[in-house]
Design brief:
With about 270 residues, the protein is an alpha+beta fold. It is built from four helices and 14 strands. Helices cover about 20% and strands about 35% of the residues. It is globular and about 55 Å long.
Length: about 270
Amino acid sequence: MARKLFCQISPLTYKISVYKCQKLRSIKDIFSKANFAKDKQKEPLEFLAYAHNSLIRRRLGNVDMELQENKAVNLSLAAPKVTNVLIKPGQTFSFWRLVGSTHKKYGYKEGLQISNGKVSAGVGGGMCQFTNLIHWIVCHTPLKIIEHHHHDRFDLFPDFNRQVPFGMGTSIFNNYLDYRFFNPTDTTFQLITYVKDEYLCAQMRSDKPTKYSYHIKAENERFEKKGEQFYRLGEVYRTVVDKRSGNIIKKELLRKNNALVMYKLENND
């Protein structure tokens, strides 16, 4: 039997490990040379770079729908803390530095959390849907992703109204598993986020028109059986197109999926 990690010994040691990681991240940021985005502007910048809406309440296997309702609350609390932030040239966007604590004393409720391929409930759960949406938006811009944690080793639920290719998700945990991107351009970008009806909505705007369009597509998607288990395989590519000429500038591999399927596939024993 493999020896347990310190964080796996008990709930107390887990809390100690989380506290240590959070403090180390805070200390690291203090000494970081990064110029974190924090200024906001209520008036939208002139040009729309990309926009997308994410369905909040989704059918996820046997997950209690109350967790979906709580997630809607959590997202509605976090969105105003992010919206209208300006990411100026040379600046870094940090999700957790804007959102801050998701403690229950701030109104956050128990939502869905995913860890090591397992589903659980935790206060502030559901924030990964927020960074999933931001990540999808950022991938349609020239902004550079500098911190992105994946939880795509597992395919946890059957697809339900999927609009974004599998493998484009994010994994976050306040505050040491963050989602961050950097602005390497001479253009100022603005991220606008809000909750409306059934959707979490986001726009990335800019003070100059962008030169390229970005098209993201899954290819070679399939399920393969290895031993007694099924895996979801495939690749996700991004094609960069010059808006003026229509020429393809490059096609790049974003993700190569090899995820263990955690649900029963139809028409398969």
